[in-house]
Amino acid sequence: MRRYGSAVLLLLTGGAVLRISLFSDLYLRYVQAALRPYLVISGSLLMLLGVVAAVRGMSHRDHEEEHEDHEEEEEAHSHGGPRIAWLLTLPALALLLFPPPALGSYSAGREQAQLAAQGVGTFPALPAAKVLDISVAQYSSRAIYDTGHSLKGRTVRMTGFVTHGSNGTWYVTRLVVTCCAADATTSKVEIRGTEATDAPQTDTWVTVTGTWLPKGRLGTDGAWPPLLDATTVTQVKQPADPYEKR
Q1: Per the confidence metrics, is the pTM higher than 0.90?
Q2: Which of 9, 52, 142, 228 is most buried when burial is the number of CB atoms within 10 A of its CB?
Q3: In CATH, which of 2.40.50.140, 3.60.10.10, 3.10.310.40, 2.60.40.420 is domain 106-245?
Q4: For residues 175 and 106, what is the distance between their CA atoms, to the nearest angstrom?
Q5: Strand, helix or coil at 95?
Q6: How far is CA 237 from CA 160, 203, 205, 241, in A?
Q7: Which are the contacts of 164, defined by CB distance < 8 A and separation ≥ 6?
């Protein structure tokens, strides 16, 4: 069975990669959509290599010598090489059968607020719409740094997962990625206009509609996190792509 170890590992890993990238959108929990073709190609190559390794293993079995080298066998067993190698199948099986969820409130809670790093200034004009759909990151940037106050008087709508703070405060939160989940940073908006007892549970996904509430001086710690005076809060399903892009 040892001769097929590499083949099994390659097939499991390739199958797991194809499962999350070719046959579902689960890969969006970990990387951006633009990387999907590379995952599909990588998974396909791993499957191909696994088949080649399995065929070679069968060929070697037919031509195997009757007696194996005793010294080599003892060294392999003494170091536990074959047994340890099989442990490498566990991550592949986990990804194949139980893909980890997207990052959520725990990751967001450990992210430090990044304030005034880009300085204040004017932003491009927002689209004319009765209700403006906007990302949490875009809202945060404009609320904290926009000297033109482009959010003033606008009704906005944003979607994110719920995180909780002290004294009954709660936030609509999104994780922002450049490439993949490993470089994720946090954007969040504190929700006002709803009673603390009505706040959704942590990690619940919601769509919130409301208007901007000015807070603190632009570009300072006092402006973070930005506020939203909510008029409606609606629970929704987690989107297929849970991250916002820079």
Answers
A1: no
A2: 228
A3: 2.40.50.140
A4: 11
A5: helix
A6: 10, 11, 6, 11
A7: 105, 170, 171, 199, 202
